[in-house]
Amino acid sequence: MARMLDVAPSSILEEEPPVTARAEALLAKARTVLDRNPRATFENVWHTLVLLDEAPIERLRRSLLRARTVDLH
């Protein structure tokens, strides 16, 4: 099947955790960080954790797109 789809076999076999489970795990991490750092804001902690949950190459691509958009304006 992987050969027919021209993808790596591991991409078919790997399961993504449900979105709600990932969100709940990130929320628990955010609460832990906020408990240790009371001066931090939830928005900053959440944003950081969401970014860290992405693959580094995706974070780089998004930042390069943002830089290009700012440069064009």
How would you characterize this protein structure?
It is a single chain. This protein is mainly α and 73 residues long. It has 5 helices and no strands. The longest helix is centred in the middle third of the chain and has 18 residues.
Supply the key terms:
single chain
Short summary of the structure?
The protein has 73 residues and is an all-alpha fold. It is 77% helix and 0% strand.
Number of helices: 5
Number of strands: 0
Low-pLDDT runs: none
Task: Please indicate the count of domains.
Answer: 1
How large is the radius of gyration?
17 Å
Instruction: Give a short account of the largest sheet.
Output: none
Summed over residues and divided by their number, the pLDDT gives a mean of 85
Structural class: mainly alpha
CA distance, first residue to last residue: 46 Å
Q: Which geometry do the CA atoms define?
A: flat
Proportion in β-strands: under 5%
Write the layout of secondary structure elements.
Blueprint: H1 2-5, H2 9-13, H3 19-36, H4 42-53, H5 56-72
